[in-house]
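for the recovery benchmark. tokens below, seq after
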């Protein structure tokens, strides 16, 4: 029987309870609970999942709606609210409840819909809703949107119902909490629940993660599981899994028209991190070009329509990239006797814009003038027209299949040899990525890597990609020590220092997004998105105290872009600076163009943040350059907005970063190599200083103050004096026993007598100078014993001074050494003076 949608909602509801546990669970404890919950859910529903009449593609699409990039619904939260309200014919008060998701503290649209439908949970339903029904409705909605993939649009149903009526027919049969998850499924965001994709896929079928590596669609993967791999159980024991994986690896092959998965990438945060990852193996160093990833499938049996181009997300963009079809035919010699394959081929490349006039690759943002999105050119309202001397070019860097040969199983150097044989290179139309092999077992490997990195940055490439020379594209049987690829970029590397693209900006306002708020992990968050601006009249503000005027240049969302402490500070301090009335603003704001969204509040005094980016790019529909992929490094509360980057300074920074330096290549690369190596050595020195053993390093007083009592035997040996307090101190008649002990400071033991020796509390100056004051205070007994030990609360320098006097007197030939009685009398008189000073 079909799989019930309520079963899926129960899993998501349980995971949400774990994420919203109060008090919040620790990360490891939360992860363990989530994994146990997922495993238990699959164990309970295993029979239904594996049933022949269950549409497992629909179930996987429901578990991971974000992977269905081929489906576009055009239903963001505001439009989805209107569609549901019309379909359910909600009254005004319930519509107002739905609109509360736009305000902080009310949850997202799914939470608000659940509140509206909560009163109807007790009403009978007309049968249960299955996952297959929900998937069919979403397929019907997506098939009518032109931004969906061609395969989705071809399966268009005959129904002319609006999305609101289609969804209303489903929502009326759902309970309130089930409707909440349906809304989040349409928005392709289950936040605050984030499913561990690899773990869930392994629980679904142990081969599914490996299958999606080379056939990255649920339809193709399930076709294999239900076909050639149908005899394998879904969840065998670990020992059997090893055998089954080896058997499955022999049956697997890429499929024309189905996107191949991508290997995992490790982002090297420093040169040391990169070297630790690569080890002592041979790696191929390949330049990373700033373009759009494309996967080219060739099937000669289709005649003129033999070319298919897939984007990074897996969407079919063949028609949108018609400008490179001719270059592909020419490079591969299609339709000629010189073509190096007979039937099929899969190639990987980077789509860039090349300028014949400048004879170099152009900036990333110029691609949108040559590539449409489902037939429309988006984001180029402020761009110039495409020039005749600018055109698309493909930089090929890998080949995955040639006819029956699965080249992705070959080592990298052999794949590059096959690629060289396939491609006819021509400057401006088809080239291969520059690469070099480095043996990291050699002592010169580190410097060679840095030199290659510096040369790539000089030529305005994004960075480098490191690929194992002796490893396949990715192993199909998960064997060996394959670690994936390493990505080396300037904005990742802390060794770059000031050469990274960093600038200070003013935070002029903020806005709230309900879905972003669920991902933040913060309670009572007011703003999730912050609008950063630049002064357009900075000189007038500084010289003549003119009214500031800002231009919003970017918005930064909290997810992965703002450190959590800074996000908390902005939400906490922003409440004292927010201004909703435009009449009371202390600065002006220039009109903004789409896609920059409007802000909810304006901060009377803008905050100052330090922002890191990956180069400079012209944002869509804008006429200025801005940092690409901006991320907040730090919030500076000690800086004023007049110290931030103005719009003219931003333009100068972008021009400097985009243009090749005026100096020679050798000078610029040499300077960068020296800087990276120097920063590497400096970090290593600081790291070695932090890891120096305490016995060989100088110990601060704060560390010595916390030294355990058992370790104080290593300290200076000071006199230990025993006093019989049955005699009064004024008579100085003491029975003295002096011994060399490990007591610090001077420790006096006394028996209970007529006038016991009770030291008064220390003065503030004495307390600060006393190194062992805390330990001596904690060591005092709470009850007075018959014979007790009294720690004389004196400065350690007093005891050391007494000891030095003894040594000095003993070394003097003219004077006899002082007796212990004299030493004690002098010490007692000094202590009496200190206590009198403290009490006075």
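predicted aa per position
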């Amino acid at each position: 029987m079909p799989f019930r949608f309520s079963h899926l909602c129960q899993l998501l509801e349980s995971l949400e309870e774990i994420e919203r546990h109060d008090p919040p669970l620790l990360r490891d404890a939360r992860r363990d609970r989530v994994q146990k919950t997922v495993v238990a859910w699959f164990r309970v529903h295993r029979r239904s999942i594996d049933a022949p009449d269950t549409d497992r593609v629909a179930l996987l699409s429901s578990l991971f709606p974000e992977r269905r990039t081929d489906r576009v619904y055009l239903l963001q939260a505001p439009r989805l609210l209107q569609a549901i309200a019309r379909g359910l014919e909600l009254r005004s008060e319930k519509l107002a409840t739905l609109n509360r998701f736009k305000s902080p503290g009310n949850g997202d649209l799914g939470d608000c819909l659940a509140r509206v439908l909560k009163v109807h949970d007790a009403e009978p339903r007309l049968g249960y809703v299955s996952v297959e029904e929900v998937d069919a409705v979403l397929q019907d909605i997506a098939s009518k949107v032109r931004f969906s993939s061609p395969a989705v649009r071809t399966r268009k149903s005959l129904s002319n119902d609006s999305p609101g009526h289609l969804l209303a027919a489903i929502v009326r049969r759902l309970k309130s909490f089930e409707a909440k998850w349906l809304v989040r499924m349409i928005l392709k965001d289950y936040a605050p629940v984030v499913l561990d994709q690899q773990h869930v896929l392994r629980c679904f079928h142990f081969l599914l993660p490996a299958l999606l590596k080379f056939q990255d669609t649920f339809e193709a993967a399930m076709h294999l599981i239900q076909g050639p791999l149908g005899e394998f159980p879904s969840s065998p024991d670990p020992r059997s899994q090893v055998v089954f994986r080896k058997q499955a690896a022999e049956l697997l092959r890429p499929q024309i028209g189905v996107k191949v998965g991508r290997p995992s990438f490790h982002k090297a945060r420093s040169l040391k991190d990169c070297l630790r990852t690569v080890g002592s193996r041979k790696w191929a160093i390949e330049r990373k070009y700033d373009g759009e990833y494309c996967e080219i499938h060739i099937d000669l049996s289709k005649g003129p329509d033999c070319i298919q181009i897939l984007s990074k997300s897996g969407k079919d963009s063949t028609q949108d990239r018609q400008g490179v079809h001719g270059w592909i035919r020419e490079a591969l010699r299609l339709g000629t006797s010189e073509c190096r394959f007979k039937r099929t081929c899969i190639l990987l490349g980077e789509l860039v814009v090349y300028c014949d006039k400048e004879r170099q690759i152009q900036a990333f943002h110029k691609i949108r003038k040559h590539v449409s999105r489902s037939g429309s050119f988006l984001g180029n309202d402020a761009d110039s027209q495409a020039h005749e001397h600018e055109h698309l070019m493909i930089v090929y860097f890998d080949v995955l299949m040639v006819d029956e040969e699965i080249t992705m199983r070959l080592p990298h150097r052999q794949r590059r040899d096959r690629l060289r044989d396939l491609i006819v290179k021509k400057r401006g139309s088809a080239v291969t990525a520059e690469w070099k092999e480095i043996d990291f077992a050699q002592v010169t490997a580190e410097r060679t890597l840095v030199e290659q990195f510096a040369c790539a940055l000089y030529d305005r490439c994004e960075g480098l990609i490191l690929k194992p020379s002796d490893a396949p594209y990715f192993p199909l049987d998960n064997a060996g020590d394959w670690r994936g690829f390493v990505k080396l970029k300037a904005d990742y590397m802390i060794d770059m220092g000031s050469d990274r693209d960093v600038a200070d900006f003013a935070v002029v306002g903020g806005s709230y997004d309900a879905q972003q708020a669920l991902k933040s992990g913060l309670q009572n968050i007011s703003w999730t998105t912050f609008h950063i601006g630049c002064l357009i009249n900075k000189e007038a503000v500084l010289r003549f105290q003119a009214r500031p005027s800002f231009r919003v240049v970017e918005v930064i969302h909290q997810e992965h872009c703002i450190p959590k402490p800074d996000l908390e500070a902005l939400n906490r301090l922003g409440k004292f600076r927010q201004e909703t009335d435009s009449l009371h603003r202390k600065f002006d704001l220039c009109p903004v163009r789409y896609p920059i969204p409007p802000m909810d509040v304006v901060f009377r005094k803008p905050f100052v943040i330090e922002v890191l980016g990956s180069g400079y790019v012209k944002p869509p529909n804008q006429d200025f350059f801005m940092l690409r992929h901006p991320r907040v490094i730090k919030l500076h509360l000690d800086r004023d907005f007049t110290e931030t980057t103005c719009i003219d300074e931003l333009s100068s920074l972008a021009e400097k970063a985009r243009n090749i330096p005026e100096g020679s290549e050798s000078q610029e690369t040499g300077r960068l190599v020296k800087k990276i190596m120097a920063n590497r050595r400096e970090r290593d020195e600081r790291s070695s200083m932090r890891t120096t053993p305490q016995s060989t390093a100088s110990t601060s007083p704060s560390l010595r103050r916390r030294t355990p009592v058992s370790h104080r035997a290593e300290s200076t040996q000071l006199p230990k004096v025993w006093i019989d307090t049955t005699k009064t101190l004024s008579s100085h008649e003491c029975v003295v026993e002096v011994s060399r002990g490990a007591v610090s400071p001077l420790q006096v033991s006394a028996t209970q007598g007529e006038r016991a020796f009770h030291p008064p509390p220390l003065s503030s100056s004495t307390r600060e100078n006393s190194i062992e004051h805390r330990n001596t205070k904690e060591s005092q007994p709470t009850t007075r014993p018959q014979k007790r030990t009294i720690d004389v609360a004196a400065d350690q320098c007093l005891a050391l001074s007494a000891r030095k006097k003894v040594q000095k007197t003993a070394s003097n030939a003219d004077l006899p050494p002082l007796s212990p009685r004299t030493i004690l009398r002098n010490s007692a008189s000094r202590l009496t003076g200190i206590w009198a000073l403290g009490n006075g």
